[in-house]
Design a protein that fits this description.
This protein has 508 residues and is α+β, with helices and mostly antiparallel strands. The chain is built from 14 helices and 29 strands. It starts with 17 loop residues before the first helix and ends with a strand. The structure holds one RNA strand of 77 nucleotides.
RNA sequence: CGGGGUGUAGCUUAGCUUGGUAGAGCGCGUGGUUUGGGACCACGAGGUCGCAGGUUCAAAUCCUGUCACCCCGACCA
């Protein structure tokens, strides 16, 4: 490598071609790869490990708020699905449908579907209707409420333009489905779960988000209200990171979830649903990654500390490896956020540089090198992934063991601060239509550079305006903030009165 | 589903216009030299050129059909 050229592990760089960079990072870090099956991906161990950590931590938060896990069928009878009209309309175009049950060889030996199902089965794109069928049986009285259930599952949405993690035909997620006695309680649940999501994304993924309500046009099909958290990634676009829906009595009516209330009258339940998906893995990559690969927040890194033995001389090899194992054992006894630290000793017989770069690309928070010289001094060379690739610090071994948790915490915090700063720098309060259009129009339309960001602007609530902006700029309202940020002003497009600013951005 | 494009080794691709034994780089394997670092040298494995048909003495190359994928739209966690 030439010392004067700063060669990056990933090419192109983010500023050259962000979408391509994203694909390359995912490949280089061995997170996932496109499969032979159209629109579907293979999630490799490193990527799945990240998802498992997200799952574990999110699941604990669900439990802590009183939810329990269960599992419902992958297949939804078409008739169930058809019960909620708006819901059908919203999902119909992207449903995979099973119409046959058996394979038979034809005259040429080709396998063909043989037996037509009396009723087609929809592969769940989301489970409101199939879960509703169970809830209808379980709920008889106000004493059966609330029902607070979550399921971890795969779902299928026949999307036209798949992208690894961000939008694949099949994806993994969790979907919470609850039933409540009153509207107020269901609304509170919807809000609560949005806050859980917001906290999870902040504390675990080191990403700060804007949260709020979706406009009518972006609402979940069949919902009364959709709440969402929106993260900004490094090309300054928004990613919807989690949604929580207040479904009113719409789905209860469709599924027949009815109970006898405290007055002895039959009443429909008030339901909610909320979900987060493997899209979060892509969000983390785009939020924190750099030109050398993924940068993982320690809390979700499958391996938090990797120890790299440096064994230039064969004679020293055994001793170095022994020291690595000992250090690994000691660090594993330390705890970071109440969990044992995940340490791996990379003993593979590969060139030291190759190994080091692999871990850089994978985004391991802390790399620790131990060679014969370090053994003599009883110290190690430590590199943090959130700092320059070349940066190394010599640290006495016992000190590293002692400080490992605090270093991980420092990396986690640093990533969060960095991402938040980035978001804030690219979030602009905008008060005129011209400024708005300028903000979202690239200087070079042939090859648009990274531009724009989040715009906070007044809007009069009209759907036509939303349409117009979407057509002109591909910019949509990401959320209408719920907090007390109400501020009177004028819609920058129509001049009509507006009661608050809303968040506008280009979205994934 | 509209508009454009591409299919050659695991990956990136040259060759195609003007038909004549399929080439490279990376990766992979073996051996060696190195090595506080994504190293170097040598040797080697790996391709019925997306598939089917046609033209021809001869097809990766020309023709027809077909399938798949990619990019730009509409849809979207």
């Amino acid at each position: 490598m030439n010392a004067t050229t700063a060669k990056t592990a990933i090419s192109p760089r983010r500023d050259q071609d962000f979408p391509e960079w994203y694909q390359q990072v995912i490949r280089a870090a061995e997170l996932a790869e496109p499969s032979e099956v159209r629109g579907c991906m293979v999630i490799r161990p490193w990527g799945y490990g990240i998802w498992e950590n997200m799952q574990r931590q999110l699941d604990a938060m669900f439990r802590a708020t009183g939810h329990r896990n269960a599992y419902f069928p992958l297949f939804i009878p078409l008739s169930y699905f058809a019960k909620e009209a708006e819901h059908v309309e919203g999902f119909a175009k992207e449903c995979a449908v099973v119409t046959h049950s058996r394979l038979e060889a034809d005259a040429n030996g080709k396998l063909r579907p043989a037996s037509v199902l009396t009723e087609p089965l929809v592969v769940r794109p989301t489970s409101e209707t199939i879960i509703g069928a169970s809830y209808a049986k379980w709920v008889q009285s106000y004493r059966d409420l609330p029902v607070l259930i979550n399921q971890w599952a795969n779902v299928v949405r026949w999307e036209m333009r798949p992208r690894l993690f961000l939008r694949t035909t099949e994806f993994l997620w969790q979907e919470g489905h609850t039933v409540h006695e009153t509207e107020a309680e269901a609304r509170a649940e919807t809000k609560q779960m949005l806050e859980v999501y917001e906290r999870f994304v902040r504390d675990h993924l080191a990403v700060s988000v804007f949260s709020g309500e979706k406009s009518e046009s972006e609402r979940f099909p069949g919902a009364v209200q959709t709440l969402s958290i929106e993260a900004m990634v490094q090309d300054r676009r928004a990613i919807q990171a989690g949604t929580s829906h207040f479904l009113g009595q719409n789905f209860a009516r469709a599924s027949g979830i009815q109970f006898q209330n405290r007055e002895g009258k039959q009443e429909y339940g008030w339901t909610t649903s909320w979900g987060m998906s493997t899209r979060l893995v892509g969000t983390v990559v785009m939020a924190h990654g750099d030109d050398d690969g993924v940068v993982l927040p320690p809390r979700i890194a499958p391996t938090q500390v990797v120890i790299l033995p440096i064994t230039p001389k064969e004679e020293a090899r055994a001793k170095v490896l022994e020291a690595c194992d000992k250090l690994a054992r000691q660090i594993r006894e330390m705890r970071y956020v109440d969990l044992p630290i995940e340490v791996e000793v990379d003993r593979r017989e590969l060139g030291g540089g190759v190994k080091n770069w692999e871990w850089i690309k994978k985004g391991v928070p802390l790399r620790v090198e131990i060679g014969p010289r370090d053994l003599e001094k009883n110290s190690v060379e430590v590199s943090r992934r959130d700092q320059g690739i070349k940066a190394k610090e010599s640290v006495p071994m016992e000190e590293l063991v002692r400080r490992a948790p605090e270093i991980l915490m420092s990396i986690q915090n640093n990533l969060y601060e960095r991402a938040t700063k980035f978001r804030d720098e690219h979030t602009r309060v905008i008060d005129s239509k011209k400024e708005f259009y300028d903000f979202f129009t690239p200087a070079n339309s042939e090859k648009p550079e990274i531009h724009g960001g989040f715009a906070l602007a007044h809007w009069n609530g009209s759907r036509e305006v939303e349409e117009q902006i979407k057509n002109d700029l591909k910019v949509t309202i990401r959320v209408i903030p719920l907090d007390d940020s109400a501020e009177h002003g004028e819609c920058i497009f129509t001049g009509k009165p507006s009661s608050r600013r809303v968040v506008w951005a280009k979205a994934y």
